[in-house]
Amino acid sequence: MPSHVPGQTAEPTTFRATSPLTGQEGPPIREATSAEVTAAVAAATDAYRVLRTWPPSRLAALLDAVAAALEDRSGEIVASAHQETGLPVPALEGEAVRTTGQLRMFSRLVLTGRPLEATIDHADPGARPPRPDLRRMNVPLGPVAVFGASNFPLAFGVAGGDTASALAAGCPVVVKGHPLHPVTSALCAEAVHAALGDVAAPAGTFALLQGGSHALARRLVAEPGVKAVGFTGSTAGGRALYDLAAARPEPIPVYAEMGSVNPVVITDPALRARGARIGKELAASLLLRTGQLCTSPGLLFVPDGERGDTLVDELRRELTAGGRGPMLSAGMAGALTSALEEACATPGVRLAAGGRRLSDVEVENTLVVADADAFLARPHLREEYFGPASIVVRYGSPARLLSMLDLLPGSLTFTLHAEPGEDLDPVVALAAERAGRIVWNDYPTGVAVTEAMHHGGPYPATSSAAHTSVGSAAIRRFLRPVAYQNTPDSLLPEALREGNPLGLPRLVDSEWTSGGGSASSSRAGAAG
């Protein structure tokens, strides 16, 4: 199954994915060549010069067409993803709905004109010094390289959130498919190409490059025509791409979502009020997708004392009785097992449940318990354990808890289970320093695709804490502002012309105007 770059010849290099369900290898997938990488980015550069002129209505139609094409092939895509990842079919069906839903969300967003942030300040000759006519709007950044995730083959895959938000911004996309699910990637790419043909998009608007080597990733990021990178994966992988992008003659931004421990703080009053429920719900959150979620609760801060002991026992029972499934790959299962062995060899740390590797791809649901001294002394206990495992850290006084929380790395989420009236201001303040989303009396797994969502956080959760990879604000990563000074109306982009031919909402002389009408009704009149 070839990479989707038309007109290129192949080198005889292939790779295969192994199904965690059956252990069988998939079909041979041809590795994209260096020439294909260069050709894909060159075609994307040509497409960019066309897409950047498209009005919002055409970009919205493109996104809607991609969503419809994916829906038409949803059954085939889900079946392939199930075989290649081992993820449950119902979870993948939900992921397919999320994938098309976020494409349509960006379509609606584009139609509002809000991402352009059209802003006009009319000339004011009476100001001291005199002020020129200034008009600013956002424009697409350029071709974007997207790296698909292993654990979300659809929603963070070939046509996932990074691709959707980049296309919504008017940026062509070159995707490096994840080697764990190449057939699924190819099926999604075929749907995208069919949709782009239906809306007469330029040929280089989208390309899929397949490969199992790090060399392909490095080559793609190093291509001069690439202007930004979207990545979801490990800290090591994201950091390597970030460093490579920063070392280019023209450095570019890398928006990488990486590792996250997603701490959960549980207070004694919360346990008194609903300890049994917390135990069941927390275990269920931990076991979603075999613990292979970027928001999986990996560090649980549980108070010393009888109620904390009861919660640990409840978690142990729930995890022992909970369902198991294969991890995405033998490599991931091996990495988790090694990390757990290192943790349990640490003084002050004990294994409460699980810990064994049952097969190449299956690890027991695992609970590790650490005392405060061990956690404070051992940095490896503050790292992500990707898979069906969590570390409980016992704490005593509030001051002791804060001293431990102060050592936490940046995370996507920070969860608090507490009761009204507790003095938690210092914990909440620290949570805001350490995470991009604070969760109150709920669980971090499950990321709503909405306007208000922020799926990001301080390093190493992401490489850019100011941006999100989920929700409508994700489009901001792939836009940049351009200001026009004293520019003739006929030479301005339509979004900034005086008559507002696109009917966009605009900020004119510090006042918001609804779509339609001239921009000359505010300060311009006063200054004239």
From TrEMBL:
Biased composition (Polar residues): 10-22
InterPro entries tied to this protein: Ald_DH/histidinol_DH, Ald_DH_C, Ald_DH_N, Aldehyde_DH_dom, Aldehyde_DH_Superfamily, ALDH_KGSADH
Record field: compositional bias (Low complexity): 519-528
Keywords: Oxidoreductase
A matching Pfam family: Aldedh
A Gene Ontology molecular function term of the record: oxidoreductase activity, acting on the aldehyde or oxo group of donors, NAD or NADP as acceptor
Segments forming domain Aldehyde dehydrogenase: 13-457
Disordered: annotated span: 1-27, 507-528
Coiled-coil region: none
Protein name per its UniProtKB record: Aldehyde dehydrogenase (NADP(+))
Provenance organism: Sphaerisporangium album
Classification of source organism: Bacteria, Bacillati, Actinomycetota, Actinomycetes, Streptosporangiales
